[in-house]
Amino acid sequence: MKRLLPSSLFGQVMVSVALALLISQAISVTLLFRAGEERRESAAVTTSAFRLINGAERAEIRAARLGPETQNGRESGERGPRRAFRDGERGGRLPPQLRYSVSDNPPAVLQAGTQRDDLAQRLREVLEAEGVRPHAVMVSVLRAGDAPGLRRLADRRPRLAANPNWRDRTLVVSSIQRTADGVWETTRLLAPGRPTGSLGAVLLQTLLTFGFLIAALFFVLRRITRPLAALTKRVADFSRDPDTVVELEETGPSDIRHLIAAHNTMEARVAALLDEKDVMLGAIGHDLKTPLAALRVRIEGVSDDDERAKMAASIEDITATLDDILMLARMGRKGSLQTEATELGALALGVVEEFEDLGEPVTMINPQRLVAEVQVTWIKRALRNLVSNAVRYGGEAEVCVVRGEAYAILRFEDNGPGIPDDAIADMMEPFTRGEASRNRATGGAGLGLTLARAIAVAHGGDLVLANREEGGLRAEIRLPL
User: Fold this and answer.
1) Per-range mean pLDDT, top range of 85-99, 233-247, 369-383
2) So where does this one cross the membrane (predicted)?
3) Which of 167, 194, 221 corresponds to the end of one domain?
4) 399 contacts 410 by C-beta, under 8 angstroms
C-alpha cells in the first residue's frame, strides 16, 4: 500500500482527499438513487390504495354499463372489452379489467413476483388512514413482461408486442381481503418509470462537483507545498555549501511565511558564525604557531639533552594537537574538498608501508582494486589515525580494502581490549579517549577518531566501529564508489 501512495505531501493529500471525495460522492449518489426509488414506490402504493378504496364503486358502475356478463371481473377477466395500455402515457395505463379485479382467491400473479412485506405494511397504513382496515394485505413486485395477463394481452395485440419498452417496466400487484371470508380485491399498476437521463444527470453532477473540488484543492495545496519544496531544497543546498547565503522569498500562507523568515534568519546567523570561526581559527594558527616555532628555536640553547628533548616533544605535541583542531574545524567548508580518482588499495598500502618502515606491526591483507573519488591527503590522514589507534591499543593492526554493496570499505582490525558497546558512540566525540592522560604517546588528545569520521562524512561516507567476536576492535571507513 505504501508503494502505491505518493511520497510527497502534495501527492498524499491529493490522493487521500480524492479518495474521500469519491467515497462521499458514491454514498451521495446511492442515497439519491434509494430516495428516488422510495418515492416511486410510495407513489405506486398511494395509487394502489386509491384504486382499492374506489375500486368496488367503479366496478359496480362499469358492470351496470356493460351488463351482467362482466360482473365478476375475475382474474381471468381479460375476456370482454380491452384497451391496450399505452407505454408512453404517464404512469402507464392498464386496461380497466387489469387495473382492478375481484377474485375468490389471491391472484396467481402475486406468486409470480417478489413478495414485498414492507410495501404491504405501507399499503395497510395508507388504507387505515382512509378508514379501510383490511383483514389481509399482499403486495408483489415483478417485471411487467413476466405477468401472465400482460403476456396474453401482448399476444393478442401485435402493436403492443412490437413495442418491447413496457416489458421491462415494474408491475406492482396489490391485493387486499377486507374481511376474513371476503373476496380478494386486486389492483395492478405500472410503477412510475425513472426520469429519462436522471442517472446521467446525477453522474454529471457528481463529476462536476468532484472536478471542481479537486481543482480547488490542487491550487490550495500548490500554494502551500511550493514554498515548502523551495525551503527543503534550500536547506539541502545550505548543508552542502554553508558559505553561500540565499534569502528565500516569503510566500504561501502566514505559517509558511513565518517558517521561511525564521530559516532566512537562521541561515544568515549560521553563515556569520562560520565566518567568525574562520577568523578565530586563523588567529589561533597565527598567534600560537609563531610563538611555538620561536620557542622551538630557543630550546636549542638548553645544554641538558634530556630536558631539551622533553621540551621539544611537548612543543611537537602542542603543534600536532593544534593541527588536528584546525583541520577538524575546516571540515565541510567550501572548496576544502577537492577530490581525484584514486585506487584505494594502493593508497592504503602506501600508509601501511610507512608504519612498516618505522618497525610497527602493521599488515596489509589482499587489498581489492577499488577506485573512488577522494581527497588523498585527508584520506591518508584518516588511515594513519586509525592505524595508530590500532597499534597503540591493540598492539598490531591488520588492514584490508574490500567492496561492500555500495561502498568501498577500508577495514582496520586489532587484538586489543576493544571498546564497551555503550561507549562506542562517545569515543568518536572530540577530546574523548579511553586513556585519561593527554600524553600523545599513550593516546593523544582524543581527536583521531573524530577527525577520521569527519573526513569520511565529508566524502559522503561514514566511520563504523564494532567489537570483534574473537576480541579486539574493527574500524571501517566506508566511502561511496
Assistant:
1) 369-383
2) 199-221
3) 194
4) yes
The pLDDT tens digits for 52-67 are: 887 756 656 666 665 5
Q: Give the SS3 label for residue 363.
A: strand
- Burial letters 81-99, b for 16+ CB under 10 A, else e: eeebbebeeeebbbbbbbb
Q: Which helix (H) or strand (E) holds 403?
A: strand 397-403
The structural domain count of the chain equals 3
263/272 Cα distance (integer angstroms): 14
Is the domain of 28 the same as that of 162?
yes
Q: Are residues 403 and 459 in the same domain?
A: yes
In angstroms, rounded to a whole number, what is the distance separating the alpha carbons of residues 54 and 52?
5
Residue 138: which domain range? 9-194
Among candidate residues 171, 194, 217, the one where a domain is terminated? 194
Determine, yes or no, domain membership for 201.
no
Residues 39 and 182 grouped into a single domain: yes
For residues 17 and 127, state if they share a domain: yes
What are the pLDDT digits (tens) for 360-382? 999 998 888 889 888 888 888 88
Residue pair 8/225 in contact (Cβ under 8 Å)? The answer is yes
Please list, in sequence order, all residues whose beta carbon lies within 8 angstroms of the beta carbon of residue 392, skipping any fewer than 6 positions away. 442, 443
CA angle, corner 63, sides to 57 and 67, nearest 5? 165
Contact yes or no for 412/399 (Cβ under 8 A): yes
317 lies in a domain?
yes
Is the pTM higher than 0.70? The answer reads no
E strands, 100-249, are: 100-103, 114-115, 136-143, 170-177, 184-190
Provide mean pLDDT across the span 39-61: 78
Identify whether the C-beta of residue 152 lies closer than 8 Å to the C-beta of residue 79. no
> Looking at the structure, do residues 296 and 392 belong to the same domain, yes or no?
no
